[in-house]
DNA sequence: AATGATGCTTGATTCGCTCAAGTAATTCGG
DNA sequence: CCGAATTACTTGAGCGAATCAAGCATCATT
């Protein structure tokens, strides 16, 4: 399991609970991926393929090197969750798309990653709106 | 940079902003560590050494294998940020403690990781209390 | 004193991530 | 239309994080 990101010394209560949230979220994500024998990175990429798209688009959206995406996609392809076809419009490019099995696994992952859903469900509709507003404001 | 953890398909607005928060938090943590040439894991371990403690205690608190901690501590030691002395009470154990330089770097990291601090600062005291309460409730 | 548990390290392996180079295809300037 | 940059991606090398299986030394128990 990945080490948590924080805290050095939580100066306030809010910061502490914020850290807690991030930690629990990250661990839940990782655990959900592990249930399906996926790494978090694999689950992430798989989740971004609702439409077929090029490697570069993925790399840019995920803010990492293209070669990183190559590796992850190669593994997803080896697992039969993804295909990589040449782009007819630009034969340099490769279009990545989920296979039916990829769709299925992605769906199962979405089901397994209950954290955000159940956390939100503990709040009333009004509270959810409040939380959204507060976090938006905090994020600036 | 590490790939984000999410989203498959954000079903609600709250979930989306929650994901955003986690993503920005994680990236900020990583960036702050990188400023000091530390990996997130190294920054994390360094931050847990306000008091000297054994490897096992660290592993348990961080929820990972002891051998993982060994590696990270070895690197921190090589960087001169940490010492590893035999435990006089139990000579199997090794007590890890920050060096003065380790203290300094840890302090600088705390300064560099502004995200939680500045996010919270955008809220009034009342809003901070609200947010704390909401997140606590959501975390269950 | 022997047996077993504990605390940590080592070695092997996998994955994520980055950087530097390389290849192929496209675009652009002349 | 041709050569030069640019773009899209892959490959290879290298590092850190993480896990697992073994191993070693040191307690702790009987």
Automatic annotation (TrEMBL), chains A, B:
The keyword Lipoprotein does not apply. Keywords: DNA-binding. GO terms for molecular function: DNA binding; DNA-binding transcription factor activity. One of its GO terms (biological process) is response to stress. This is DNA-binding MarR family transcriptional regulator. Residues 11-140 form the HTH marR-type domain. The keyword Ribosomal protein does not apply.
